[in-house]
Amino acid sequence: MRIKTCFRKYSSQEGGAVAIIVALFLTVAVGFMAIGIDLGSLYFRQKSLQTQADMTAISAVLNLSGTPDDHAQATVIGNRLDALALTSLEYGRYIYDSALPAEDRFETRDLSDVDVNAAEVVLKDAAPLFFSQTFLDTDSTPLSASATAARFDFASFSLGSRLLDLDGGILNALLGAALGSNVSLSLLDYQALLDTQIDLLTFTDALAVRADLVALDYADILTSEIDLLDVAGAILDTGLVSGSTDVLTAILNCTACGSFNASELIGISGDNVAIQLEDRLGTVSVSALDVLKATLDIVNANRLIEADVSLPIPNVLGNVDLAVVVGEREAHSSWINLGERGATLHTAQVRLKLDVDLSPSLLSGLGVGVSALSLRVPIYAEIASATVTLTDLYCDAGGPNDRIASFDTGLTPFTGTNGTHVVELFIGEFDAPTFEDTTTPLDAANLNPADFLDLELNLALITIDLFTLQLKAHAATGNALQPQIDFLVSDISGSPKTVGSGSLLTSTIESLLDPNNLEISISSQSQSLLGGLLSLLLAPVVALVDTVLDVLPGKLLGALLTPIDALLDGLLNLLGVGIGQADLTLDGVACGKVVLVR
N or C end of the chain: which has fewer CB within 10 A? Predict the structure, then answer.
């Protein structure tokens, strides 16, 4: 009974209950604290690993043109990670396009590909467990972090269409062909445009107003349809032309000028460039005349342009009759391009014809009793387009003599009737409309002999006042050097560099005038003249003509090479065209910051 009373008394007491509850809670709290410490440690380790992955990706991208693998590995080791922590390092192209899902914006590439601009890394590490290993059968847990970094570098560069010399006749012919009327403007009118520098941002803003495109962004403006009137009006609206504006006024009076896409004038290669246009267009300046000349080339594509040109070249008599057909640039390549590595520009294929009168004194010494009365050489030329590709930008360049950009260069051979060539030259005549039809290559099989030399033959018993010889020749060059061209920091916005070989013109003319390539014959009229001579007189005349035909081939190379070489070189400079050559200008380089994109 006593025991039962004591038990009842004990059970009715409430003292000490808190101690029991606290003891039970502390057991659970200590367990949660242990898990919390480990989770906090894991979070810190994961965040640190992610930071290390970010740094590794940035290090690789900063050195894409060097040894990115080594720099990435050095970054990993420098952050006190094991070298094996870098489990994946891939290079590729990151496209900043909001229309694409984030996971599709990175495309894996080989490091050697020219359009690589990003690196993706994966780091793995093991984080230690402190208290949780009491409940788990492991003392660590694996962690992984990935990062993608990209840089958006680009350059602005132009190829061809740089006028080395001004000639009113050439420029008036180009402008007249575009306007469909005769134009007579002075060199001073064109000089005012040549002296005017316009940055592309100012020009694009003015173009947007003229073409009613102000609601669009810069990328859309530069891919919209515009016309020659819009370009001329935009140049005028900038207010930068301080001299004569007669050239622009003449264009604005045009009632029907050709339209084209603005991307044929100013090209944008890649969405990564498009998002930076507003910041970068203002850094690129060009002359107003270059903009206008490039526009005329676009509008006049495949049109026949004719002009009389006067060049002060010894032994060239009077004006040269010039006809030119400039084709379209390949794939509608632009004149000036703002592009990343891999951006490419092309010049247009050019076909020209010129008739030149040379001093007959060049062919003295053809024989006793032989005098040259006149010398005319009709020349046709088919000139391949040039190509440049931006292969690398060196954004770590500092001093003016450091390399900043590299281009692969070359010529795009055209397919003629007897192979591929970078230039074909002909002496002779083609029947119309062979020359104007740029869809059909000039065929040497269709080349007719042309009257080129009028002679006076003096014999003891007879004088022939006009004896005409004809000439036909053809030469082609199929190969050309394709070197890399480097630009230094000091070359930016400076003088253009020449793509190709300047000796190609001279060597092709030498081949054209080689005695083995020349076909010299007697004109049909002179043949009839010989047929009308008495047999008594025919023999000495034929003997004299045979002497001329034997001597003439050896004289033509030495007599005609210098004037024809100088003439073609001068004309092509006026046109902004080169045989086996093109002018490449680096207008600006924009080295973007490295960005963590994922």
Answer: N
All residues at 6 or more sequence positions from 593 whose CB lies less than 8 Å from its CB, including other chains: 151
pLDDT tens-digit readout, 519-575: 988 888 878 776 665 455 667 777 778 888 888 888 888 888 889 888 888 887 777
Distance of alpha carbon 106 from alpha carbon 101, whole angstroms: 10
Tell me the pLDDT band of 240, cut-offs 50, 70 and 90.
very high
Mean pLDDT, residues 160-189 taken together: 74
Beta strands in 84-224 (DSSP E): 86-94, 106-109, 118-128, 140-151, 154-159, 197-199
**First vs last C-alpha separation in the chain:** 80
Cβ count within 10 A of residue 309: 20
Measured distance CA(74)–CA(238) in Å, rounded: 52
The answer to pTM > 0.85 is no
Q: Buried b vs exposed e over 85-103: b needs ≥16 C-beta within 10 Å? A: bbeebebbbbbbeeeeeee
Alpha carbon distance 429, 353 (integer Å): 10
Q: Is the dihedral of CA 504, 505, 509, 512 positive or negative?
A: positive
| Cβ-proximal residues to 117 (8 Å cutoff; 6+ apart), any chain | 61, 64, 93, 94, 150, 151, 152, 153, 272, 340, 341
Rounded CA-CA distance 140/127 in Å is: 5
Q: Which helix (H) or strand (E) element contains residue 469? A: strand 463-477
pLDDT at res. 534? 47
Confidence bin at 308 (pLDDT 50/70/90): confident
Neighbours of 316 (CB within 10 A): 19
87-112 residue pLDDT tens: 889 999 888 776 778 778 888 889 88
Burial grade of 264 (CB within 10 A; 0-12, 13-18, 19 or more): buried
| Strand intervals (E) in 231-288 | 259-261, 266-269, 285-287
Average pLDDT over residues 330-357: 83
Using CA atoms, how far apart are residues 208 and 210, in angstroms rounded to an integer?
6
- What percent of the chain is predicted at pLDDT more than 90? 14
What dihedral do alpha carbons 570, 575, 576, 579 form, nearest 10°?
-60
Residue 507 tokens, joined: 């060597």
What is the pairing mode between strands 450-458 and 370-383?
Answer: antiparallel
Q: Which two tokens stand for residue 334?
A: 């632009």
Tell me the one-letter amino acid at 82: D
DSSP E strands, 270-368:
285-287, 304-309, 316-329, 336-339, 344-346, 348-358
Q: pLDDT tens digits, residue range 14-37?
A: 666 677 676 777 766 666 676 777
Report the alpha-carbon distance of residue 574 to residue 512 in Å, rounded.
23
Question: Looking at the DSSP assignment, which residues form a beta bridge with residue 351?
Answer: 325, 382
2 to each of 8, 9, 107, how far by Cα in Å? Answer: 10, 11, 89
Q: For the chain, what is the mean pLDDT?
A: 82
Apex 209 CA angle, 207 and 214, nearest 5: 105
Contacts of 26 (CB under 8 A, 6+ apart): none
